[in-house]
Amino acid sequence: MLMTENIVLCDVEDAIATITVNRPDRYNALNVNVKKTLLQTFKQVNENNSVRVVILTGMGEKAFISGADVNEFVGKNSETIKSIVNPSRAVSRYIDSMNKPVIAALNGYALGGGCELAMACDIRYASKNARLGLPEINLGTMPGNGGTVRLARLVGLGIAKELILTGELISAEEAFRIGLVNKVFVSVDALKDGVLELATKLANRPKIAIQLANQTLEKTWYLPFEKHLKFELEAFCQTFNTMDLSEGVHAFLEKREPNFAHH
User: Fold this and answer.
1) Given strand 183-185, what is the order of strands in its sheet?
2) 82-97 helix and 32-47 helix, angle to the nearest 10 degrees
3) 79-131, pLDDT tens digit by residue?
């Protein structure tokens, strides 16, 4: 176990790091202290060479992350609120920059800042009881941690506008239908099993190829088409300098399962 404050737990086992927001009494709401600890924890697992996949979840069966701790909004103005939102943005942007896949396990409410943090992850799995949304409009504000950008890119502008402008929540099944989550499970226990199965599958894939493919996919959102194609070609060629490429090719030709060394 990595040493963090109790508000964020982190366990590493079999190349998989599980980061858990641990404020179940507050539906795992994000205050500044949680955000800063999350950032520190993500940095630790990203720099840990034994970790190849990261899971982000919340403690309990009611909430992934219910959003920002609204108590911190009281008395803030357009300048002072930045000290509250900037730590959120730092976590999301760091997840964007990571070279390891991050899976969000949505075990309940994923609202506001929690939904935004989930959207920064690479893959989202949800339990049937999960509810998702960006309800900031009901507080008289709007998403401030990439919600308007990531939601529109994930589900399309029209649906994003409807969800953000109404502030309405949607079920896990509806989130799956519109492409906001990748898969829905019948229970939190089934979700944990499904996420672990996916994480194990990714951890067993060749490490460098996974990293390069993930980086290339991430650039879909902001690189011009021709530059993106060029980046893809360079990433593809880099895999041919790895031991795992040689192992994968030989295993295919020899009709056996590859034994990747992650080099």
Assistant:
1) 8-13, 16-21, 53-58, 102-106, 123-127, 183-185
2) 20
3) 999 999 999 999 999 999 998 999 999 999 999 999 999 999 999 999 999 99
* Helix or strand run (H / E) with residue 106: strand 102-106
pTM: 0.94
CA-nearest of 10, 74, 68, 82 to 35 is 68
Helices 157-166 and 147-155, interaxial angle, to 10°? 140
CATH class for domain 8-203? Answer: alpha beta
Extract the tokens encoding 114. 């929690």
- List active site positions: 116, 136
Buried b (16+ CB within 10 A) or exposed e, 83-114: ebbebbbbbbeebeebebbbbbbbbbbbbbbb
Are the C-beta atoms of residues 163 and 135 closer than 8 Å to each other? no
Q: Domain residue spans in the chain?
A: 8-203, 207-253
pLDDT, tens digit (0-9, with 9 covering 90-100), for 173-223: 999 999 999 999 999 999 999 999 999 999 999 999 999 999 999 998 889
